[in-house]
Design a protein that fits this description.
Layout: H1 3-7, H2 10-22, H3 27-46, H4 51-67, H5 78-100, H6 124-141, H7 146-157, H8 163-170, H9 174-193
Helix pairs in contact: 2-3, 3-4, 3-5, 3-7, 4-5, 7-8, 7-9, 8-9
Family: Belongs to the sigma-70 factor family. ECF subfamily.
InterPro entries: RNA_pol_sigma-70-like, RNA_pol_sigma-70_dom, RNA_pol_sigma70_r2, RNA_pol_sigma_r2, RNA_pol_sigma_r3/r4-like, WH-like_DNA-bd_sf
Keywords: DNA-binding, Sigma factor, Transcription, Transcription regulation
C-alpha cells in the first residue's frame, strides 16, 4: 500500500477501489477486500452468526458487491453498502439457523482470535498467563454496553478507524463516535482495574 493510500480512510479506499475496479484495474480492490473483510467479519459475528457460518456470509457479501459494482451510484457509498449488506445477510443467516433448529449458545463475539497456537519460544507458564489474561479481558468486555462493544470491535478491526463506517454500523452521528469511543475505553479500563485477575500491564 502506498503512503497516499495508507493516509486514506477505509471509506475513501473503498471509493477508489470501486472506481478502479469499474475501469478494469483490480489492485486497489484486492487491497480493499483485505482491509475491509475484518470489519465485515465483526459486523456479521456481532449479529450472532456462528463463526463457521460467518465466513460464508462475508464471502457472499463480497460476491454481491462485485455483482452490483456497476449499479452503486456513489463510489463514496461503497463501504456503507458493504456494511448494510453484511448486517442484512447476517440477520438472514440467523433467521435461517433459528428456523432449522434451536440456536446453540454462541461463543462471545470477540473471542475468535484468542486461543491461537503459542509461539514456540513462549514457555508454558507465560502462555498460561496470557490465556488467563485473554479470558479475563473478554469476560469483562462482555459486560460493556452493546454500543461500546460494537464501537470497540470496529476500532480493533481496522488499522485506521473510519468513524463514518463506525457511525453506519452503530447508528450514531459521526461527531459522537470519537467521544463515545473514549468513554467506552475508559469503562473497559475501570472494569479491568476492578478485576483481581487482571494483572497485565
Amino acid at each position: 500500500m502506498t503512503d497516499q493510500a495508507h493516509a486514506m480512510t477505509l471509506g475513501e479506499r473503498g471509493a477508489r477501489a470501486l472506481v478502479e475496479y469499474r475501469e478494469g484495474r483490480t489492485g486497489a480492490f484486492e487491497a480493499f477486500v483485505r482491509d475491509a473483510t475484518p470489519l465485515l467479519w465483526h459486523v456479521v459475528r456481532g449479529q450472532g452468526v456462528a463463526r463457521e457460518q460467518a465466513e460464508d456470509v462475508v464471502q457472499g457479501v463480497w460476491v454481491s458487491f462485485v455483482r452490483h459494482a456497476e449499479t452503486i451510484r456513489e463510489p463514496q457509498a461503497a463501504l456503507a453498502w458493504l456494511l448494510v449488506s453484511a448486517r442484512r445477510a447476517a440477520w438472514s443467516a440467523v433467521r435461517g439457523t433459528r428456523a432449522a433448529a434451536a440456536r446453540a449458545r454462541p461463543l462471545p463475539d470477540d473471542i475468535d482470535e484468542a486461543g491461537e497456537v503459542p509461539d514456540a519460544g513462549v514457555g508454558p507458564e507465560r502462555h498460561l498467563l496470557e490465556t488467563e489474561r485473554d479470558r479475563t479481558l473478554w469476560r469483562v468486555f462482555a459486560r460493556l454496553p452493546e454500543r461500546c462493544r460494537q464501537i470497540l470491535r470496529c476500532v480493533a478491526a481496522a488499522d485506521r478507524p473510519d468513524y463514518r463506517a463506525i457511525a453506519e454500523v452503530t447508528g450514531m452521528k459521526v461527531t459522537a463516535v470519537g467521544v463515545t469511543r473514549g468513554r467506552c475505553l475508559a469503562k473497559l479500563r475501570a472494569l479491568l482495574d476492578q478485576d483481581d485477575r487482571w494483572e497485565w500491564s
